[in-house]
Structure formats: C-alpha cells, structure tokens
Amino acid sequence: MGTMKDQIKTLARQYAADIVANRRHLHANPELSFNEYNTARFVAEQLKAIGLTPQEGVANTGLVALIEGRKTASSENRVVGLRADMDALPIHEANDVPYKSTVEGVMHACGHDVHTSSLLGTARILQELRDQFEGTVKLVFQPAEEKAPGGASLMIKDGVLENPAPASMLGQHVAPNVPVGKIGFREGMYMASTDELYLTVIGKGGHGAMPDQLIDPVLIASHIIVALQQIISRNRKPANPSVLSFGRFIADGVTNVIPNEVKIEGTFRCMDEEWREDGLRRMKKMAEGMAEAMGAVCEFTVVRGYPFLKNHPELTRRMRSSATEYMGPENIVNLDLWMAGEDFAFYSQVVDSCFYRLGTRNEERGIISGVHTPTFDIDESALEIGAGLMSWLAVEELRVKN
Ligand SMILES: [Zn+2]
Ligand SMILES: [Zn+2]
C-alpha cells in the first residue's frame, strides 16, 4: 500500500489526465468575476461524482464541501481549509491552443482554471484516502478574486470560516516566473493591501494670462502629489514596504486655459493594516488641508481594496518542510515580497494562512508570459504536482495537534 506520500503521488499520477482535461474545459469556458455560474455547476457535478455533498450558492457562485476523515479519538476535530478561485479576466486570448477560450474577450489569464481543476484533483485524492487521515478537509471554491470587494470577503461573510472553523487555510497560485516542478514559499508579509485613491481638486479656471484672478487647480494638484509622496517617505516606518502611485492626472485645459478642476487617481499599497489606516488618514488630511490653504477644495475618496496578505510564519514553515519532503529540497524556492494584491489576504487576516506558488514556467516550450497577459499559459505538468502537493500538505496539517 505504501506510505501516505507514495499513495498520494500514485493517485495524482493516475488522475493527472483527468485534471488536465478539467483544466482545459474550464480554460475554454471562462466566466468573469461574480458570474461563475457554469463553472460552479461544473465543480458541483465533479464533487458529487466522487460522493461529496457540496454546499452551493455560497457568496452566490461559491461552493464549500467537506471531506470527512476518520473521527479523532479526542473531541478535537481538526479542520484544514483549501481554497481555489474560479473567475477569469476581461482579456482576449491570443494563444493558439486546442483549449483556447471560446468566449470573446474573456480569458483565464491568471490561472484560476488551474487552481480550480487542481483542487478538484485534490478533492478526489483525499476522498479516496479519507480512511487514512483524521480530521476534516474543507474545500473552498470562491468567486471573484479579481474584482472588488473580492469573493473571499463575501465567502467569509457567508460563514466559510465557521461550522466547522478551519484551523488553517491553504491557497496556491500559479507562478509564471517559477519553473515548473518548483514551489515557492514566503513567511510573513507577502502581498500588499490595495486601496484606490480618487482626488478632485476644484479651483477656479480661466485665462492663463490672468492667474491672479484664478485659483489654479493644476498647480495645487501638483503640490498635493508631491506632498503625498512625502508622507510615504517621512511618516512610514522604513522597514515597512509601501507604494503610492498615481496613474491618472487629468487637467483638461489647453495652453492658455486653466481648467476648473483636476482629477487624480492612484493606488496605495502596503503590508501593515495599522500603517494603512494611518497613511490614508494622513493623505486625506494633507490633500484637503493643502487645497484649502491654497484657496481650493479637494475631494478625497478612498475605494478600499484587499488587506495585505500575511503568511503565518509557523504554518508556512511547516508547509515548507512538508513540501520539501514531497518535492525534494532542490525544488523549493524563496519568494520575494510582491506589491500586487490578492483576496486570499482576507482569509489570512482571520485565520492562520499559507499562500504558496506553483511553478508553471517552461522556457524551452516558450511558456513564459506573465499573468494578466493575452499569451499567459502554463506547463500542464504543474497540475499533477499542484493536486498532489496540496493533498499532502492538507494531510500533514491535519496531523498537527491543536
Ligand atoms: Zn489575477
Ligand atoms: Zn490570481
């Protein structure tokens, strides 16, 4: 029968072709955030086919299913949560592959088809082996990772972290910069919070030759941008990563016409929820105060995004060492901080969480495009690894005593 690890590897190999077929089906039939109806139906059918009873309609298109292992001798029933996201992006696929997207302008360009099919494979493996581990595996298929307010936040509101409450959550994401066959980990701060800033500086426009008669919002908005950057450099703890970028600055005048108002849009990202609040408060105060001092008005609006993603250090060390056992030490890599956002962060703010990367790059075959590009694709041999490894990590995590 072999060890648990060997059995998982054998099953992952046995199911690999089906997992690839599922991935191709999902890839060819992508659905946008909050519209994952057919995807959810497909996932539900697959789960039912292996004897599970998924709870459907969580956060509308999400699903939750439990795999019950042996009952524990003690009253403590440990639960581990495994998460996959299911949504695609509004991108038109440029790949010429048999499983190319059949939906105009919609594409799985962030690998969520990979995460979903991989977790279905994991479900099949763990369901098969359920007599051989104690505790419960909670499968979480969530909608809308790519769109605010993030499917994860709605799944949490719908109670996904309760009844039963997972002691830990695991999530994996494809990594086009990590060679296939390798897995990346990082403890602690990993990905950034993502807030959107919308500023309107309202002055008084008119002829550019008579600035004394006007309140120039272009000059005032320029001062505000410089002052806000200085908040990042002067008020933030230097060890605390943070980015403020403005990508839109619209002063719709002409050479000799000063407009009435200027619109600015930007993104504020960091890895500390306290600094996030403090930074936003300071920026608002500075922008409004400066505009006022210069005779204008600044409307400062924040559209809140995801919190920052923290990988629980102890859990991540455990998962890294279990992954090392499964993959071999030469196949484990360290991840850098990344100032992009990811809604798995919502789970990580509530429960011990570990978000790791599944290598999908294959330079020889030209599979090198980044996520969110029309030529993104993966080396599909990553699927057998992804499904098997997550099964192994779940089993290992269930062995930990509460
Ligand atoms: Zn994405
Ligand atoms: Zn993604």
Give your account of this protein's structure.
Mn(2+) 2 binds at residues 110, 112, 146, 372. GO terms for molecular function: metal ion binding; N-acetyldiaminopimelate deacetylase activity. InterPro entries: Amidohydrolase, Bact_exopeptidase_dim_dom, Peptidase_M20, Peptidase_M20_dimer. The protein has 402 residues and is an alpha/beta fold. The protein has helices at 4-28, 37-49, 112-128, 151-157, 217-234, 273-293, 313-327, 345-350, 381-399; strands at 55-58, 62-68, 79-85, 136-142, 168-179, 183-185, 188-191, 195-202, 206-207, 242-251, 257-258, 261-270, 297-303, 309-311, 332-334, 352-361. It has 2 domains: 4-191 and 308-399, Zn peptidases (Aminopeptidase, 3-Layer(aba) Sandwich); 193-304, 2-Layer Sandwich (Alpha-Beta Plaits). Helix 1 (4-28) runs antiparallel to helix 3. The longest helix is centred in the N-terminal third of the chain and has 25 residues, at 4-28. The model has no long low-confidence stretch (mean pLDDT 97). The structure holds zinc ion (2 copies). One zinc ion (ZN) binds next to loops.
Bound molecules: zinc ion
Q: Sheet bearing the most strands, described?
A: 8 strands, mixed
**What would CATH call the architecture of the largest domain?**
3-Layer(aba) Sandwich
CATH class label of the largest domain = Alpha Beta
Q: Helicity, in percent? A: 25-40%
The whole-angstrom Rg is: 24 Å
Sequence of strands across the biggest β-sheet: 1-2-4-3-5-16-6-15
Order of helices and strands: HHEEEHEHEEEEEHEEEHEEHEHEH
Q: What fold name stands as the CATH topology of the largest domain?
A: Aminopeptidase
CATH superfamily of the largest domain: Zn peptidases
Number of helices: 9
**Total domains, how many?**
2
